[in-house]
Design goal:
- A hairpin with a 2-residue loop joins strand 3 and strand 4.
- The protein has a five-stranded antiparallel beta sheet.
- The two termini are about 15 Å apart.
- It contains two helices and five strands.
- It is an alpha+beta fold and about 70 residues long.
- It has one domain (about 5-65).
Length: about 70
């Protein structure tokens, strides 16, 4: 599976789906990064809070529906 990236402009959150299977156990937060992991500690998805401040060029491209290379 490839990664899936989504941006919620209302919440200003960029989400990166890393794994499409697995049961969420907990999340680990460091600043504006939140990593959601399964019971084995494997990452399921990553959230970047306040994304437009952290990675503005990527967020702008995603908001316009442009593919990133």
């Amino acid at each position: 599976m490839g990664y899936r990236i989504e941006y919620d402009s209302e919440a200003d959150v960029l989400s990166v789906l890393l794994k499409d299977k697995g049961e969420l156990s907990h999340a680990e937060e460091v600043g504006d990064l939140v990593l959601h992991v399964d019971k084995l500690g494997s990452p399921l998805y990553l959230e970047v809070l306040n994304a437009s401040n952290i990675i503005p060029l990527m967020v702008q491209a995603l908001a316009k529906g442009q593919a990133l290379a």
